[in-house]
Amino acid sequence: METIATFGASGHDAAALQLFEQADQARVAALLRDCPVVRVAAGAAVADEHEDARLYVVLRGMLEVTPAEARPGTDRTASRVLPGECVGELAVLDGEAMSDHVLALQESELLVIDGPTLWRLVDESNGVARNLLRLLSFRIRAANAQLRRRQKLGEFYRQLSMVDGLTGLQNRAWLNAHLPLLLEQAQAAGEPLSLVMIDIDHFKHFNDEYGHLVGDTALQTAARAIAAALRPSDFAARFGGEELIVILPGTGQKGAALVAQRLCEQIRQAVVFTDMHKPLPHITASFGLATLGAGQTVDALVALADAALYRAKQAGRNRVAV
Fold it and tell me: What is the pLDDT of residue 279?
């Protein structure tokens, strides 16, 4: 940055700047008269962390402000400061150097107001104080809006991280986070809850015969068949490999057995692909059912469902066991 003039000699009108609109122009002009006007080359930093807090008012050109935690030029939350606008007021109020990254997007001329001068402007001009409050209010609203956007984006990615990329069902991370909560809710309300463990029959043989890509399609087909047959209050997740799990809140053993039988039939009838030049492979699955007992833990309930699944396989697969 190079100093090219004082504000009093620059020919600029303070009344055209947002911070000084409808203020006592004579008093403002007197206080700003000796403030430097600097020229900043395009791409140059406007301030650094080692200098005293200052307010920069854009007289010509454009600045970009990037949050301190982001790299300049890479953060979509960067804001632009246009002629008549300013940056650095929070640093002056805090009495600390500006932490945000401020770059000149094009060659710019800036009015530089040091902390003591800004405080004199606030003390001696109600108009400046009012405009500064309005500016701070805008900054707070903008920061809150940005925070809400980031929270929504964070929630979106959190939800995305809970979905299995292949099947579209919830994944193991979701199951680990939510199954204990569902059990706790059921036990607190004294309501039933059932768990159905599902394993695609002879899946390794299916992969060996038709290839892993078709195996992936088979898993997707089974997942779609399961998801389509469940109630809105039910949950389905990929437990791991070819094992899926269904959670049935508010459902006792009898009702859960009917659901499991329906799912078994849905998978049995599902077609993996419809290429008429090849045999149509069908899949079946074995189902193990367990219903939550008094004081039962997640691990105990899953172990019961897994034991029931083992019995279904031992009995010939393609069936439901309790």
Answer: 59
